[in-house]
Amino acid sequence: MTGTPPPLPIPDETARARLLAAVRFDTRGLVPAIAQQHDTGEVLMMAWMNAASLDETLATGRACYYSRSRGGLWRKGESSGQVQKVVDLRLDCDGDTLLLLVDQKGVACHTGRRNCFFLAPRDGELTEIAAPLVSPESLYGA
Fold it and tell me: Is the pTM of this model over 0.70?
């Protein structure tokens, strides 16, 4: 059951609706989405999606998430330029978690690191194990 993934974007609304119907969104209408670099397997980040962000992702082939803090859609890279092109999308066995295989342009983390998983326990303390590759100020103009 392996093979070439279906091409994204998926312009057919009926096909997208079938995929959306298979997802088990939580009571807030959200589903966790893990972004993984498609060619290396590096786990980049975790974010949330709602039906609208997932539909946009399927329709455009560009990662779009739901920002709980902003209360709306968040198109990855819209302010930083660090875009995620979705190469493939997978749904877990329970239908309640998404895996996005992406081609990440630049860094994935808002802290300027390649991925969001840069804290690890070392000698009883949480320690940064990866330095920023770019300053957040240069990404967001802060």
Answer: yes
